[in-house]
């Protein structure tokens, strides 16, 4: 059995967590092959904590060292596609962090290059896809448990960040440094899950607030209307200024409804008769009997599923699945090529707010990039004043 030597590019909070899991033997078929970071202080820390692990301050040197079979890119978002391509170019397996990039044009370049290397593993760190709750939710939807989707509503505002968080580094919450705010930093997992489970919307219309409750240039409040193109609609709400926070996903189908609370509990209500059939056959007297204190078991059954979350388990599962794909071809839970869908949706939400109108997916990539570059230039001019 092969052991995958993983190169960790960027040994900050996430890279440090992965290094800890691997060094503690929690990731099957994987060891730390090398660590790379441009911060001299990180070199000193790694020399003490991981004395037997080679350290590099240039990731290209690490890729060409012969010390790694694969890499994970725990670096600023703009760098994910570039580093992914450089690794794949050298037949080194690449696990890119989320989001896959800042804009779809650069992610498409990564995907297209990866397609020329079918024998090299290319994954993305969508750890929520390993969450048993969301795997079960996808199974329920795929198995038509509540029928055809009519509406989705997700309010995910459990991302409270104080001003001090944004002030902690100059690149944070900037267009040039991160390429956005809550949409590209905190909420990419939910954006991925939404399209993975419910499908990619055809159109979006968004109301986005930039620097609404924080002294930042990027978005800290988002409300988006989704149009799935088949009559189904949705609402996606996220923010970083709600200290009380809400995490609630509702999916309404023509045969029932699923509600997910706090990413811990799934409530499934299955209609005994499809709603359209109920509408066609029930009189108002029948309705009154049921909904004025009658027996609702005649209308629907209810099932509640509870899930426990173990910190780190999802990340370990992604690393193990990535290693297993390299070792024996186990299918990837999150193929790298899937990363473009969430980026496309986030780009569409931004673009709709910038243009003040509904936009269709796929969006005009050149237009998005031009508008993003305008934001970056405006930011630079303000800094230089």
Automatic annotation (TrEMBL):
TM annotation in the entry: none
Gene Ontology MF term list: nucleotide binding
Start and end residues of each Gfo/Idh/MocA-like oxidoreductase N-terminal domain: 5-119
Pfam families xrefs: GFO_IDH_MocA, GFO_IDH_MocA_C3
InterPro entries given in the database record: Gfo/Idh/MocA-like_OxRdtase_N, Gfo/Idh/MocA_Oxidoreductase, GFO_IDH_MocA-like_dom, NAD(P)-bd_dom_sf
SUPFAM superfamilies in the cross-refs: Glyceraldehyde-3-phosphate dehydrogenase-like, C-terminal domain, NAD(P)-binding Rossmann-fold domains
Residues annotated as domain GFO/IDH/MocA-like oxidoreductase: 134-258
PANTHER family named in the record: D-GLUCOSIDE 3-DEHYDROGENASE, UDP-N-ACETYL-2-AMINO-2-DEOXY-D-GLUCURONATE OXIDASE
Name recorded for this polypeptide: Gfo/Idh/MocA family oxidoreductase
């Amino acid at each position: 059995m092969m052991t995958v030597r993983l190169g960790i590019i960027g040994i900050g909070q996430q890279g440090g967590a992965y290094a800890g899991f691997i060094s503690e033997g929690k990731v099957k078929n994987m060891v730390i092959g090398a660590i790379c970071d441009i911060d001299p202080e990180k070199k000193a820390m790694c020399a003490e904590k991981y004395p037997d692990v080679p350290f590099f301050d240039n990731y290209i040197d690490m890729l060409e060292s012969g010390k790694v079979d694969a890499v994970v890119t725990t670096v600023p978002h703009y760098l994910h596609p570039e580093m992914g391509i450089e690794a794949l170019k050298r037949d080194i397996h690449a696990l890119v962090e989320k989001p896959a990039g800042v804009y779809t044009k650069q992610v498409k370049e990564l995907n297209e290059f990866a397609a020329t290397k079918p024998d090299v593993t290319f994954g993305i760190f969508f750890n929520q896809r390993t969450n048993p709750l969301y795997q079960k939710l996808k199974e329920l939807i795929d198995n038509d448990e509540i029928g055809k989707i009519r509406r989705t509503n997700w309010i995910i505002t459990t991302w409270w960040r104080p001003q001090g968080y944004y002030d902690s580094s100059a690149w944070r919450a900037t267009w040039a440094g991160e390429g956005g705010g809550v949409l590209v930093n905190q909420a990419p997992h939910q954006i991925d899950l939404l399209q993975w489970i419910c499908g990619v919307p055809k159109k979006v219309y968004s109301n986005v607030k930039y620097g609404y409750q924080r002294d930042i240039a990027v978005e800290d409040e988002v409300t988006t209307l989704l149009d799935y193109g088949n009559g189904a609609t949705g609402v996606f709400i996220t923010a970083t200024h709600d200290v009380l926070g809400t995490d609630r996903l509702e999916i309404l189908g023509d045969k029932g409804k699923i509600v997910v609370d706090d990413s811990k509990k799934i409530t499934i209500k299955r209609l005994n008769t499809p709603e359209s059939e109920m509408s066609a056959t029930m009189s108002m007297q029948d309705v009154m009997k049921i909904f004025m204190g009658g027996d609702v078991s005649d209308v629907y059954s209810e099932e509640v599923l509870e899930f426990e979350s173990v910190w780190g388990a999802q990340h370990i599962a992604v690393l193990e699945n990535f290693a297993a794909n390299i070792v024996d071809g186990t299918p990837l839970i999150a193929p790298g090529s899937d990363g473009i869908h969430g980026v496309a949706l986030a780009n569409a939400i931004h673009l709709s707010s910038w243009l003040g109108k509904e936009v269709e997916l796929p969006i005009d990539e050149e237009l998005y990039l031009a508008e993003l570059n305008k934001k970056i230039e405006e930011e630079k001019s303000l800094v230089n004043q």
